[in-house]
Specification:
single chain, alpha/beta, Nucleotidyltransferase, domain 5, five-stranded mixed β-sheet, 5 strands, 36% helix, 13% strand
Length: 157
């Protein structure tokens, strides 16, 4: 028997289609890519760890906040600063207090009770904008220690 006949008999015909895929080169490529990514990630993390951030100077604390504070209580009282005003007087009072301020300081800070209706707040802020406020801010109270648990709508208690 010749060498050709032995190959045919063993099932190794010449020029046939391979039914198996050789995954060794594919695995080699993936391992090389993995090593490249590991090296570049290590270099990136190391270079990011040594960033020199600019130092900020502590600003002098100001006792008086910029702008005019408008407070709206749960019993529908409007306060501009410490002065109680009616809704009819609100426009003229705000115009008087905003007039001497620079345009960057013409800010109305709204402090409202949590029970305040949204429509009342929008009406007061609209009056403030008409009175000449350049910007409007809504003051928030800080959360108690441990987070703000309690007051979630639909929460069971």
């Amino acid at each position: 028997m010749t060498n050709k006949q032995k190959k045919k008999k063993a099932g190794h015909g010449g020029g046939g289609v391979f039914s198996e895929i050789n995954i060794t080169p594919l695995t080699d490529i993936f391992l090389v890519l993995l090593i490249i990514f590991m090296v570049t990630t290590a270099v990136t993390i190391e270079s990011a760890a040594h960033v020199d951030l600019p130092k900020a100077e502590a600003a002098a604390p100001t006792d008086k906040p910029k702008g005019v504070i408008v407070t709206y209580t749960a019993d529908h009282q409007i306060m501009v600063g410490s002065q109680q005003v009616t809704e009819a007087q609100l426009m003229t009072t705000l115009q008087q207090q905003l007039a001497p301020l620079q345009s960057s300081d013409k800010i109305v800070i709204f402090q409202g009770d949590p029970k305040v209706i949204l429509g009342d707040m929008v009406r007061i802020l609209d009056i403030a904008k008409t009175a000449g406020a350049e910007a409007i801010a809504i003051a928030v109270s800080s959360l108690p220690p441990g987070g703000g648990a309690g007051g979630a709508p639909g929460g069971g208690a």
